[in-house]
Structures are given as structure tokens and as C-alpha cells.
């Protein structure tokens, strides 16, 4: 069996661009399978474009990139025999032509259900994802190409993929609501677990190297600067808290269509805070990421919509408890012994309660939880699913 693994955001690890969790999973699976060699693996990634260009595309440019990569990946798969090939797709809108590859066994990784994302973010939860799917089935032919990339590609993915890999039970439930004819046995719930991390640096040494006070309460967020990541919720909460000596490490680079405007808004709000100091280190990786995790007391994950949350599990690996919003990713990973799930209305209240708790003890519980769930286990389980498709 040969596995052809396609990824629109893959192959840019050396650039350290803020491409998101899907890119991280692609690189980690590639590295793990290079070590364990469960099957011959052919990776298909974009030509003639950089990761930094991708995160700077506007809507039209991104749609053209998706169509170009669709053609590239479809052609790359079709040179192989369907009888000997399993196709692993790391994207949906950016994926191959599912209909053209219907004779192949396809496994699709759902890093995000974009229809559910639109319902949650753009429709603010007032319209359910299944309603959007029904509307598309009626008038979808009239949609502009960027919406067809979302709705029609996702419908084709559901119809022609032999297996769907989702990180949480909530995502499986939404897919079955939206596409009720789907065989539930084809949807495999596979939490990614915790990525391997560099060893933790002594907290005070990390703070010294980052220029942070030794006695500060240090809060850390780590994600791209983009509206759905909702970092302003933390800044708004801090505006209503008069605790002194709070430092926020708001890590991440501006990315995708509205990232730069969002980053400017965050900097403006941060400048208005009276009792907290906000640092903008940019996109951190390697030793810098290690230092920021090591210096922190609490990981804050205010994202409005997350299917899983690799950085949350990464924080647990470093022994950090967490405060999150209520979304599928938090419900899949969080436990009360090492953090709290809040609503926007209770965010400040939960933050204050955690700040008063025994954070080191909670961090030890978080680290134990993460170490029991290494990413290598998920990679092995996914390899077994792909082998089963071949049999």
C-alpha cells in the first residue's frame, strides 16, 4: 500500500509561518511516520508559493490558490493505481477533486468543519450548520466560487471519502446532523494528543531571559492573530481587573484575511490597559516557544471556535493549567483538575478564581494528563485506519 498525503499548508516548517494546527499536524505525522515507516508515504504540497504568501492572501487570491492546488493534488494522485493507493487529505476546501478521485480510498482529516465555523462565527450561532447545508443544496449552484469551495467541496468530501478523521465527538455529531446519510462507522474520532516539546526551562531563568518580573502573574496565549482566536476577550477582561503586576504574553503572528486589522485592534486595546502589561512577541517557535511556555503561570485559550487545540495540549505538556472558552476543543481536552471552561460572561470571574488557585499543583495534573496522551499514539491509530481501508 502507498499513501499519498496532500496538504495545502504543508511543507513550510522551516519558514515558521503562522499557518495553524493543520500544518502542524501534517509536519508531526510526516515526522512520526518517517520514524516508524508504517507504509511508503508520498507527500504532496504546494509548488511556487511560500507559507508567508499563503497567510497574506486575500479572499480571491486564496480561492485561486485552492483551485490550483486542487488540480495539482488530483493529478499527483491519478498517476497511481487506485488498487494500490490510499489518499490521505489534510484539507477539504483546499483538497483534491474528491469526485474525480471517487475510485480511490480517501481518508480526510477534518481540522475544521468550515460550515460549522461559518455558522458559529459569521452567523453568530443564530443559524445551525445543517440549515446552511440545506440552503446550499437548494441554491448552491448560484454561489460564487469561494463559497462553492466551502460547501460543495465539503459535501463531495463527505460523499466520496471512505474515512473521516475528526478530533472530537462534537465534530462527528455535527457532520452527522449536516449529512444524515453518512455512515457513522466512517467517522473516526481521533484526538491528536500532546505534541512532543522541548524540556521546560526554570521559570525564573525564562523570565529573566524574557525581561519579565520574577513575581508577576504571567498569562500566555499562543495562536495566530485572527478574529476567531478572540484574544480581545482576554484584554477586555483585564480592563475590568485591578490586580497589579499582570503580564500577558500574547504570542502569534497576524494571518489570513483579517489578521493584520485584528492585530492592530489588539495592540490598541492593550495600550489602554492600566493594570496589565501586554507583550507581543510575534510568532514564536523552537527555543522562544520553550521560554514563553516556561515563563508562564496560566495558559489562556479564548478562541471562539476550535475543533481540538494542539497548543492547549502543548501547554499541558509544559505543566500549565488553562482557561478556555466553551467549544469542541475544550470539551475534548479540559478537565476541572487543571483548568476551567468559561463563557464570555464568566471569563473574568473564572480568571480570578484560577489566579487564586494552586496553579503549580494544577499544572502537574495537566502535565500528567498530557504525558498519557502522546501524539505518537494518534499517529499509530491513524496508520491502522489507513491500513484497514486497504484490506
Summarize this structure as a short list of keywords or feature phrases.
391 residues; alpha/beta; Rossmann fold; 2 domains; six-stranded parallel sheet; 16 helices; 12 strands; 46% helix; globular
Describe the structure.
The chain has 391 residues and is of the alpha/beta class. The chain has 16 helices and twelve strands. Helix 9 links the parallel strand 7 (217-222) and strand 8. The longest helix has 20 residues, at 59-78. The mean pLDDT is 95.
Topology:
Blueprint: E1 2-6, H1 21-36, E2 41-44, H2 51-56, H3 59-78, E3 85-89, E4 105-109, H4 114-122, H5 129-139, H6 145-160, E5 163-166, H7 169-178, E6 187-189, H8 203-210, E7 217-222, H9 231-239, E8 246-251, H10 259-271, E9 276-282, H11 286-295, E10 298-301, H12 310-317, E11 322-325, H13 328-333, E12 339-342, H14 347-355, H15 359-371, H16 375-390
Parallel strand pairs: 1-2, 1-3, 3-4, 4-5, 5-6, 7-8, 7-10, 8-9, 10-11, 11-12
Summarize the structure.
The chain is of the alpha/beta class and 391 residues long. It has 2 domains: 2-193 and 375-390, Glycogen Phosphorylase B (Rossmann fold); 203-371, Glycogen Phosphorylase B (Rossmann fold, 3-Layer(aba) Sandwich).
- What's the overall geometry? globular
Low-confidence stretches: none
CATH superfamily of the largest domain: Glycogen Phosphorylase B
CATH class of the largest domain equals Alpha Beta
Describe the biggest sheet? 6 strands, parallel
Amino acid at each position: 500500500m502507498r499513501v499519498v498525503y496532500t496538504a495545502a499548508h504543508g511543507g513550510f516548517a522551516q519558514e515558521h509561518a503562522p499557518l495553524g494546527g493543520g500544518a502542524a499536524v501534517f509536519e508531526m505525522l510526516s515526522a512520526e511516520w518517517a520514524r516508524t515507516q508504517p507504509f511508503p508515504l508520498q507527500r504532496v504540497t504546494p509548488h511556487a508559493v511560500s507559507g508567508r504568501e499563503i497567510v497574506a492572501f486575500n479572499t480571491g487570491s486564496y480561492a485561486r490558490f485552492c483551485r490550483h492546488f486542487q488540480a495539482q493534488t488530483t493529478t499527483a494522485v491519478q498517476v497511481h493505481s487506485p488498487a494500490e493507493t490510499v489518499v490521505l487529505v489534510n484539507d477539504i476546501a483546499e483538497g483534491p477533486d474528491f469526485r474525480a478521485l471517487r475510485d480511490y480510498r480517501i481518508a480526510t482529516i477534518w481540522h475544521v468543519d468550515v460550515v460549522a465555523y461559518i455558522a458559529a462565527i459569521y452567523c453568530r450561532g443564530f443559524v445551525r450548520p445543517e440549515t446552511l447545508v440545506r440552503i446550499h443544496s437548494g441554491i448552491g449552484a448560484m454561489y460564487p466560487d469561494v463559497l462553492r469551495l466551502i460547501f460543495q467541496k465539503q459535501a463531495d468530501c463527505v460523499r466520496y471519502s471512505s474515512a473521516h478523521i475528526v478530533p472530537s465527538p462534537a465534530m462527528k455529531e455535527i457532520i452527522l446532523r449536516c449529512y444524515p446519510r453518512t455512515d457513522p462507522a466512517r467517522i473516526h474520532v481521533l484526538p491528536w494528543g500532546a505534541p512532543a516539546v522541548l524540556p521546560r526551562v526554570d521559570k525564573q531563568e525564562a523570565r529573566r531571559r524574557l525581561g519579565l518580573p520574577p513575581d508577576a502573574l504571567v498569562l500566555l496565549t499562543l495562536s495566530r492573530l485572527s478574529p476567531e482566536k478572540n484574544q480581545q476577550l482576554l484584554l477586555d477582561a483585564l480592563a475590568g481587573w485591578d490586580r497589579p503586576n499582570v503580564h500577558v504574553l500574547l504570542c502569534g503572528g497576524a494571518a489570513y484575511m483579517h489578521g493584520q486589522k485584528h492585530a492592530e485592534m489588539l495592540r490598541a486595546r492593550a495600550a489602554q490597559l492600566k493594570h496589565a502589561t501586554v507583550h507581543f512577541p510575534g510568532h514564536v517557535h523552537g527555543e522562544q516557544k520553550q521560554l514563553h511556555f516556561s515563563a508562564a503561570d496560566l495558559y489562556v485559550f479564548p478562541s471562539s471556535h476550535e475543533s481540538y487545540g494542539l497548543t492547549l495540549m502543548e501547554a499541558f505538556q509544559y505543566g500549565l493549567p488553562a482557561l478556555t472558552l466553551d467549544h469542541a476543543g475544550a470539551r475534548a481536552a479540559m478537565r476541572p483538575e487543571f483548568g476551567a471552561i468559561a463563557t464570555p460572561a464568566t471569563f473574568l470571574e473564572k480568571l480570578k478564581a484560577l489566579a487564586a488557585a494552586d496553579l503549580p499543583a494544577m499544572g502537574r495534573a495537566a502535565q500528567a494528563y498530557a504525558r498519557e496522551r502522546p501524539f505518537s499514539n494518534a499517529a499509530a491509530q491513524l496508520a491502522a485506519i489507513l491500513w484497514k481501508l486497504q484490506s
